[in-house]
Structures are given as C-alpha cells and as structure tokens.
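Progress narrative, Year 2. Work on Putative intracellular protease/amidase from Sinomicrobium oceani advanced from sequence curation to structure prediction during this period.
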Amino acid sequence: MSKKVLIIASNANAIGPNNRRTGVFLPEVAHPYAEFDKAGFHIDFASLTGDTPYLDALGLAGDPDNLKFLTGDGWDLMQKAARLEDVDTSVYDAVFVPGGLAPMVDMPENELLKKVIVDAYERGAVISAVCHGPVAFLNAKLSDGSHLVAGKNISSFTTKEEDNYARADVPFDLQAALVTQGAIFHEAEPWQDQSIQDGRIVTGQNPASAKSVGEKVVALLTE
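Result:
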C-alpha cells in the first residue's frame, strides 16, 4: 500500500503593514510534490480554511518541476484543498508544510494546526516543512507540555535571509522564535540548499532546500 502524504497550505495572500502580496512559494510545494509523486505516494492537500491557497513566485514556472506542478495534477489538487478540520489526519504517514511568507500570517498560533502536527509526530508519522513552513511547528507542545522543537535539530528561513528579503513585512523573526523555544538551529549560507533530519522531523532552510526536504521524507517513508 502506498504511503500517504498530507500537504497543509496557508490561505494567506498578503502580509505586513504594506499588504505585500504573498502565498505558498511555488518551488517549495512543487519540488517536494515531485519527489512524493515519483515515489508513488498518495498526496492530498488541506488548507486552514478550505479556500484555494494562493501561489507566489509564478515567475519561476520555467523550472521543470514547477511547470509540471502547474500543468499537471499538483496545482489542480491544491486548488481543491480540503478544510483541515474536515480531514482525518490520522491516516497520513507524513505531513508537509510548504513555505512562502503566507504561513507567517495564519500559522503561528493556529491551534488545530498545532494539534495535527503534534498528533502526527506522537503517533510516529513524519512531520516536515521548508523555509517559513516550520512556523507550523512553533508554539506546538507535546503531550508532556514541552515545546515540539525543544532539543530538536531544526532549520528554517534564517535571520540573515530575512534581513535581505522581507524584514519589514514579517511579524517576527522565525529563526529567533524557534531558538527561543529550544530548537538546535542549523544555518547554511543564505539561499544555499540545507535540509535537516532529526528522527521523524525534516526541515529545510529556503526554496533551494525544498527538493532535499522531499528526498529526506521519501527516504524515511521507504526505508
């Protein structure tokens, strides 16, 4: 039986005091999707509200995996994303949260999302995210009351990267917030591929890391 992966997307389309347009960053969903698809996994999409998520970085559509996502099944499935509260998340072997600035808007405090992430982790599923997606793990607490990220090797979009990208738009610094909750943070040079696996947690630093996050999730589910 093929493994099942749930991709949980933000529904935000603007961020910050200047209403900067945003959404899910195209390669951060398309590249992992390509790895899951090649592995023969069953892939479903959910979003926090059930409305169609927005895509950012459509200017990168020339990339082969991005183009295949847009013209194949990926974007079609993402447009039909179910409302997270209507999904039986217990049937999935892995949960993946793509980035873009959008998750910084509606994912930092979403209680249902935190519950889904923690429940998946505590029942032995893989939890994964890339770039700003690891904000989904922030403020999530395990059943013993400890922060999910405490003592875990984690990566995300870094302070240095944010300083040259969207500092004026984001509500807080993601790297600093994860470290405050006890994450052992791993930082590569800005915009370089870096993904980290710690047990059943896989995180990546930036768009360049999306493919390797997908590869690590596939390796975990097929080992």
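DSSP finds eight helices and 13 strands in the chain. The mean pLDDT is 98.
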